[in-house]
Specification:
The chain is 42% helix and 20% strand. The protein has helices at residues 10-19, 30-37, 41-53, 69-75, 79-99, 141-149, 152-159, 174-187, 232-248; strands spanning 27-28, 57-59, 65-67, 102-109, 112-119, 134-136, 190-193, 200-208, 214-223. It starts with 9 loop residues before the first helix and ends in an 8-residue tail after the last helix.
Length: 256
């Protein structure tokens, strides 16, 4: 792969351009792409041109640039996430029918939680997560479960840095978070009222593969009231069902 005079490869710069797009801002001007990627505008414009030519980006009639259909097509071939989603989807649909709000699946990717599927209802309680969206591990019930059962080095890195808050109920103390993680491992679920939004409670449980490893989190987002905890038993039962199917798969699902 050709490298620039700074030593950074052309591929690395192309990734920086693609990383400029977010779920909230899927269409950007080249000048904004340059600013977000830290590239000179001429360099950003040239890379955008190459990516458009390959169908990975697309230009709008107003001159804006957005993610192209070919990139979506390639991303949809991500076999681990797709196989996991296919195995879990019947269970997720049943869970959603019971809770009547949000039911979602998430995996850990580095030091963030990545949501791979979500089912919602029109009148469901507020929820800030979205498919292919990310949140810091400590900031959601799914992330807390994945952090509790994740590698110790990841846990220590998260605990060693400032923890941002979304509401007054968000856990921002490393000592308190460490205690909550221990509690999650003991009781088998995380229940976080008002953690991301004051009107919502996030409840998450671990999903295991055929080797017994925690590879994902199953969660619901329900109203922040006295009935929230009633979702725990159905969540645990649903997670056991998904884990059973994953255990029957030819190869165990793994998450990074």
């Amino acid at each position: 792969m050709p490298r620039t005079p700074t030593g950074e490869s052309s591929l690395a710069r192309a990734v920086r351009v693609l990383d400029a797009f977010t779920a909230d801002q899927p269409a950007l001007r080249v000048s904004e792409i340059a600013r977000r990627s830290g590239l000179h505008i001429a360099t950003a414009s040239r890379i955008v041109g190459h990516l458009v030519a390959e169908g990975l980006l697309a230009r709008g009639s107003d001159g804006s640039v957005r993610v192209g259909m070919r990139l979506w097509e390639l991303a949809s071939r991500a076999a681990p996430a797709r196989s996991f989603r296919d195995a879990a989807m019947p269970f997720l649909e049943d869970l959603h029918a019971v809770v009547g709000h949000h039911a979602q699946l998430a995996v850990r990717n580095g030091e963030e939680v990545l949501f791979v599927e979500r089912l919602s209802a029109r009148d469901a309680v507020v929820n800030f997560s979205r498919i292919a969206g990310r949140l810091p591990l400590h900031l959601s019930s799914s992330g807390v479960v994945l952090l509790a059962y994740g590698p110790p080095d990841v846990r220590e890195r998260v605990l060693s840095r400032p923890l941002e808050a979304a509401t007054p109920a968000t856990i921002t103390s490393p000592e308190r978070l460490r205690a909550v993680l221990a509690q999650v491992r003991q009781q088998g679920y995380a229940l976080l009222p008002g953690h991301v939004h004051e009107d919502a409670t996030g409840i998450a449980v671990p999903v295991r593969n055929g080797m017994g490893e925690v590879v994902a989190a199953l969660s619901v987002i329900v109203p922040n009231d006295d009935r929230a905890a009633s979702a725990v038993p159905v969540l645990l039962a649903t997670a056991r069902g998904i884990s059973r199917v994953l255990g029957e798969a030819p190869e165990p699902f793994e998450a990074s």
